[in-house]
Amino acid sequence: MELPFYLEPLGSYHEIISHPYNVDEAVSVAVFHEHRIAFYYWADWTKGIIHGRPKEQPPTLVTFDWHEDTASPCADECRELEELDLSRLSNIAFFSWAKLNPLNDGHILSAAYLNLLADIFIVCKQKIGDHPVLTDIYGNEHRIYCFSCAEEMRQVLVQYSSEREIYLDVDLDFFTESDDPHGGGNNISLVSESVIESIFNPHSTIMKFVLPRLAGMTIALEPEFCGGISNMYALFHALEKSIFNGALLSGKTTWKK
Questions:
Q1: What are the residue boundaries of the structural domains of the chain, listed by start?
Q2: pTM of this prediction?
Q3: How far is the C-alpha of 22 from the C-alpha of 95, rounded, in Å?
Q4: pLDDT for 232-246, tens place per residue?
């Protein structure tokens, strides 16, 4: 049986809301459990399959995550990526769920390999390693920059490019503290709401750079790395009220000013 043209990954949701700065534009915010599903939305938004027009150049990725999530696709995975039909969202939805690494650490460089993303800026809590330049299927180079805090990233980001659009990506486990080298585990604590607000309120130094250039936002819930579903909801609510007015998916969401 052939899949329909349009298919959104199971358990994922998106809302199209007015752009935080550009009054004549709209932007999508997507929410899902497994972080690899971000690949689906980046493909849709960059290629302009359903939502918006194809982009002349791929946006920069700005992501906040406990983990780096920068596993490179192996040779077999590269071949599968090259064979992926990027004109059909149903194919991308299935690929994101069933073919990308189930450890949820390969979606970023898989997207970069297909030139769905430009360079990648990561704020993470995992031990930061060195990253080679990734060359995509068209011969373009993609660089990965990792930082321990938002202000360090901002200082590099503002020198990097002021013209290119940005995808903002947040994994809720970024708002946890864990002594496990892989994150999660049995000894998790949550950062305070004030810490979350200090980064994501629209007047923070990093958001004042990101939001005018925003081309889409993805939020990964991943409750197993947040210490459970209750913690996940608490963190989601703290993020939501830091950056939005109203509840996401209510049809009444706007960006805080």
A1: 25-244
A2: 0.95
A3: 33
A4: 999 999 999 999 999
